[in-house]
């Protein structure tokens, strides 16, 4: 088995620390990421920064705002009354922090060194986002009524517009003061200008949570189809999916020019796109869940994975003063910093390669570029648990031969490799382009889950394991049920269900023996299907067994090939038809006759009796005890109304395996 990583789609599945995965599938040094502060709260929902370098974090579930100083010291800026979650923050030119709460829909102002003061109650249940325009005007995006509100310095609330969706979840302002808003429900993007809201785009995804505006006024809208689900707490309100909305899990980034032209720049199978931010180079940074991935997308749509966090929900982003980026996390209450520019070292850890069972390793090879002053090192580790911290081996020593180094890790089910990139020369970085590893699965025995021998002419067994007996109608009434189509004499279907844990191709052999015999006789070998039409005509009647043997020989050399077998339950082979004896016809008054006799079968119970006069239609009859269910059945039935002269009455009986016995009796009526 061989695994190869050489594309963006493959490398994206791994873990990046200080490296990025570019659109062409190359891995190189990227922004360094470090833990910046720990608020000790459950979730960081919002981030904002003031001119002095203080960072503010809005958290849940206790409705607190924390101040993180340039020295990384964490202080409580304010605990907001009657609030559980602070979803929205904004900082004005004077350093005052505005905080929007949910539920309750209140907005507070926290002036430097002062306690929180209520600015207004919006009348909405949720304040999802706040935005300050360059002129200092404060706007709020709310949920529960889908309104965008303007809040004056004295706390007066003015409705700017109402969306057709219940929740306006994102809000940002361009340099010219134009506001843009995104909704949850139908995925609408609005321009808010001149006191009115205008739809710019209706995204196919259900929610537009990330908005960013470039220097030239181009709007970037990040849309997603998933919903935020955190392990603890219930911060998000229950919001049903609109009727007709897409159920496909995906996210996308759209570029909307000032003229209104829309282009889809990027899309991903990641269901959550939680935040968007412009970096200092005019590219968009996207925070996605539920794998904690950070992407950088250029204006040409080229994307790179620049970070992956252990916490899976990066909920908030904020630009720093020197091109760095702060990231607030859900589920841990931590804040991380992504530095601007490439670091001096980074690590790429591959996904866990699952060989399905214990495996012996071959070699790992890689293709990389390491200019002078840079280095690339490769290690491996292995384990049998899906989580790589549960009993896995230690990382191996550095492997030397890029063209193919033997993998030194212990045999196991899972394997990972790690690549360390480093540089001592500014502006020069190594590049990993491809990694290939091989291993041989331990061969596991095939399995046979079931083996069924079906009665002739049947594709599957009846619930009782055979056909139901024929019963006489209540009250002794007649009836002429037509017999079913005759089965091909002596042909029995053998069916089985088999599989192989390694996914190997299987071949099968079938054997038969009587229950009183000791040796198996081959029926057929090298079968590729799991059913076989077996002709039993050359097999003696009586209790019989079938054995099927499955082999993985088609995919394994002889010394390593394994087999499995299964023996059926005993079943009857019966190719001998029933016999009719003591068959006679006696006058029964008024020109009628009574036909009597006895039907018997050596092996199987009888199931049906029929008669026909002069090759006419077949008519059912029943045995003397009213039900065909034994190997011997006396019978008597009345034939009425034959015309004068000689007639032949044909009598046939059928056993449980559809063998048919036929007899006849001649009757004469009238004077002839």
UniProtKB/TrEMBL annotation:
Name of the protein in its database record: Fibronectin type-III domain-containing protein
Region Disordered, residue ranges: 227-251, 379-409, 450-490
Species this protein is from: Handelsmanbacteria sp. (strain RIFCSPLOWO2_12_FULL_64_10)
Gene3D superfamilies: 2.80.10.50, YVTN repeat-like/Quinoprotein amine dehydrogenase
Biased composition (Basic and acidic residues): 229-251
Family annotation (InterPro entries): Vgb, WD40/YVTN_repeat-like_dom_sf
Domain of life: Bacteria
